[in-house]
Amino acid sequence: MLIRLETRGDYAATRKVNLNAFGSPLEATLVERLREDGLVIALLVAVDDAGHVAGHILFSPLTILSTHGGQMQVASFAPVSVLPSHQRRGIGSMLVEHGIDACRRAQYPAVILVGHPGYYPRFGFSHVLVARLKNPFAANEAFMGLELVRGLCGHSGPRCLSRCVQPVLLTYGVVDSGSRRATTVWRQWRLRLSSPFQAEMSGVEKAQLR
């Protein structure tokens, strides 16, 4: 299985993967709008031996503002999808790991997601890291973060995710980026994952959660 950057020629296949994995056009639309708005850190695809796109993952920029007036841009991760016919082969895990590496190379200090708390801790994600971040998406264990810069949470001031006084998590992109279309569909999708103490699992999570 080859993990590589998405190209323009993959767009139709990427949409097909998301439609089949989620059974809804919402995730596919989210990917397309974020791509159109240029709000992409890493768009990766998994290509099988026959040259077909079997999986997909997206990482986008997210801005955190603190009550001290500072701000920090981190990566946001979603969605990840794998064709049902290719699930339970570790493809989702490969995509996550390659995507995290891409964010680290791009010098993002952390990654934030809303996902199943029984699946993502295996990659180092933790709710504790982001428990004090105010956000409109989820307030339970489904809201998680991963530190990419060692000791990030040992700092004081706006560079600290978990100890800063009432930090505020914003939406995709840089402040005043004008990315309202992507923000709206992303918030709709996130709210669908925000039922109390549970997060809806994507196709890849359902298949790989043990």
Which structural traits does this protein have?
disordered C terminus; Aminopeptidase; 7 strands; alpha+beta; globular; 210 residues; single chain
Structural class: alpha+beta
Helix content: 25-40%
Shape: globular
Estimate the mean pLDDT confidence: 75
CATH class: Alpha Beta
Number of strands: 7
How many DSSP helices?
Answer: 5
Number of domains: 1
Order of helices and strands: EHHEEEHEEEHH
> Low-confidence parts, pLDDT < 50 over ≥5 residues?
154-160, 162-167, 170-210
Could you say what the CATH architecture is? Answer: 3-Layer(aba) Sandwich
Any idea of the CATH topology? Aminopeptidase
Question: Whole-Å distance between the termini?
Answer: 22 Å
Radius of gyration, in Å, reads 16 Å
Strand coverage percent = 15-25%
* Main sheet characteristics: 7 strands, mixed
CATH level-4 homologous superfamily: Gcn5-related N-acetyltransferase (GNAT)
Give a quick summary of the entry.
The protein is an alpha+beta fold. It has helices at 11-22, 26-36, 91-105, 180-192, 203-208, and strands at residues 2-5, 42-47, 53-65, 71-82, 110-114, 143-147, 168-172. Strands 1, 2, 3, 4, 5, 6 and 7 form a seven-stranded mixed β-sheet that branches.
